[in-house]
Amino acid sequence: MSHLYVPPDWNENSRSITPQTLFFNRRDFLQAMTAAGLVVGGALLPKSAQAETGWLDRLLGEPDRKLQTDFTPIPGLKRNPAYTVSRPMTQEAVALQYNNFYEFTSVKEGVWKLIDAFQPRPWQVEVSGLVNNPKTYDVDDLIKTMPLEERVYRHRCVETWAMVVPWNGFPLRELIRRADPKPGARFVKFTSFLNPQVAPGQEQSHLPWPYTEGLTVAEAMNELTIMATGVYGHVLPNQHGAGIRLVTPWKYGYKSIKSVVKIELVSKQPATFWNTLVPHEYGFVSNVNPDVPHPRWSQKKEKMIGTGDIYPTEKFNGYGNWVASLYA
Ligand SMILES: Nc1nc2c(c(=O)[nH]1)N[C@H]1C(S)=C(S)[C@@H](COP(=O)(O)O)O[C@H]1N2
Ligand SMILES: [Mo]
Which residues does the UniProt record annotate as the domain Oxidoreductase molybdopterin-binding (predicted)? Predict the structure, then answer.
């Protein structure tokens, strides 16, 4: 049985969206990929860095399979009404089948197909560095002890696709307060897992694994910044970055690092995955801004996955009220 999330504000508009098929079909997938010219890999990588091979063979070698949708709802989860989005929610089946997770593949439509070997439980996250109380947490304990809430946020990928999803999790600042930063802490460095045995993309040695990201301490302490332990009313499915991920909705999607194993308070701006790989395309700050084009495309508009609806891109992805003062 599937238990696809039914949003509390489910409206006519989102109900009329036709979800993608819940079944993976190799032939249709390959036809779609070839038609879209996507056989080499994801748009974030410039052509010169697109050296991924092997994903096609892996996909062809596996049987067609059904998308997992039978997630257990989190009881008593409350939506925080302070965060509303004036666009329809993205259908869960759409978000589950269109992911950026380069540890597995650069083909967004193929991530969910390659993710079964990934075991996100038990999942530990270390909070350390320039803090008085370093500690390693078990994610299931965090889910029980942190102020868990649901927040509907926009998500804007630097590639111009966008979605609206209900994350659940807690503000990162709660975790940072518990850690009690020392005076020299100015940045927060995030590190994702490293395990090429389950993540075939990590066999690509020209990429700077593990995936890393960073924020200033002020950005990390902003009330918008959350650590998501779930989405659509349940825990995170593998492809969305289980066991725990960062969500910074005013920044391009690549800042929202998935499957975090370490959060460190540091004194210097940390190196990050995309900035290390292609520094002239992906800066450290990476706030959504329609007036600053990507070197290879405009950022003026964005396309909602699932519906294909096009909207003008907003500065700070529409979250200026919360974050503009950080950059004044
Ligand atoms: N570890 C890791 N985190 C990551 C990525 C990745 O490849 N690896 N991709 C990023 C990008 S580019 C985007 S747009 C979002 C996509 O999140 P979603 O697949 O849950 O929609 O995850 C971000 N976090
Ligand atoms: Mo992205």
Answer: 118-274
Q: What CATH number has the domain bearing residue 119?
A: 3.90.420.10
Ligand 1 nearest-atom number relative to CA 165: 21
Instruction: Return the structure tokens found at 270.
Output: 């940390």
Nearest CA to ligand 1 atom 12: 254
> What tens digit of pLDDT does each residue of 104-160 get?
988 898 899 889 889 999 999 999 999 999 999 999 999 999 999 999 999 999 999
Is pLDDT of 235 > 70?
yes
188 within a domain of the structure (yes/no): yes
Rounded distance from Cα 241 to ligand 1 centre (Å): 8
Q: Total domain count for the chain?
A: 1
| Segment 281-308, tens digit of pLDDT | 999 999 999 999 999 999 999 999 999 9
Q: Which two tokens stand for residue 164?
A: 């609206």
301 is in which domain, residue-wise?
A: 20-319
Ligand 1: atom nearest CA of 211 is 1
Residue 259 belongs to some domain of the structure: yes
% of the chain with per-residue pLDDT over 70:
81
Q: Which H helix or E strand runs over 187?
A: strand 187-192
Per-residue buried b or exposed e for 295-327, using 16+ beta carbons within 10 Å of the residue's own CB: eeeebeebbbbbbeeeeebbebbbbeebbeeee
Q: Is the CB–ligand 1 distance for residue 102 below 6 Å?
A: yes
Q: What is the pLDDT of residues 154-169, one digit of tens each?
A: 999 999 999 999 999 9
Is 141 part of a structural domain of the chain? yes
Confirm whether 144 is domain-assigned. Answer: yes
Dihedral angle, C-alpha 271, 272, 274, 277, nearest 10 °: 30
